[in-house]
Amino acid sequence: MNSGNGYWGSSLNGPRGLLDRTIQAQIGRMLRDMFSDAAEEPVPERFVRLLEALEVEEKRR
Amino acid sequence: VTKASTSLKQAMLGLIPNLRAFAVSLCGDMERADDLVQETLLKAWNHLDSFQEGTNLRAWLFTILRNTYFSECRRRRREVEDRDGSKAADLSVHPEQPGHLDMQDFRKALEVLPPDQREALVLVGAAGFSYEEAAEISGCAVGTIKSRVNRARSKLTEMLSLGSTHEFGPDSATEAIVTRSVGSR
Known about the structure:
By secondary structure, chain A is an all-alpha fold. Chain A has helices spanning 14-39, 45-60. Chain B has 185 residues and is an all-alpha fold. Chain B is 73% helix and 0% strand. The relative contact order of chain B is 0.10. The model of chain B is unreliable at 163-179 and 181-185 (pLDDT under 50). Chain A binds chain B through residues 1-2, 8-9, 15-16, 18-20, 22-24, 26-28, 30-44, 46-48, 50-51, 54-55, 58-59, and chain B through 1, 5-6, 9, 12-13, 16-18, 20-22, 24-25, 34, 37-38, 41-42, 45, 99, 101, 103, 106-107, 110, 121-122, 124-128, 130, 150, 153, 156-157, 160-163, 174-175, 177-178, 181-182.
């Protein structure tokens, strides 16, 4: 996992840089939250059925 | 059905939540995301023989999904002329509360990014792939991924930052944020 903010670059100094770092830290957090929230959703039935159907089809071959 | 393909099916099933998260991060629309996932699963199933046992199944499926997404984008672009940069015109997102970004602002900003930059950012910053893995998934050089990620980050920062106060906001707002963020350390 690419965590931490070391990768944001080193040109972020001064008041504006501090603001940018704050925003960028939030961006990093939101990216991860967005992804993990979506990944916590239960798998829709259609995909379970799809994989089952594919398997049945393969057995018939 | 071989034993191998049965366990692959199990593994694929287990990776669906991840694929959906990736798809929705790329296209910003759950319905379209699920169609992408469905197409990905079908393609993967039909090409199981091209998957090398012991390699990263997650990366393989992500590769199929992003290829599906990008070829769809190219097709759409041909069909519908980009609405003369209507998206680009609305490049700045104005968070309602200074210094506080909510998820909606964030998603909106993410959608404005060029798709290749969004992809790189999501792979590295959200899905947790290394630059090397992301490069392999996207079929480009590691340096390209790094520069896409950097451009995506600075563009997002610009869009989400009230710090560009000379454009849209009083200096005091910036100062308040800076002061607050210093105080909270």
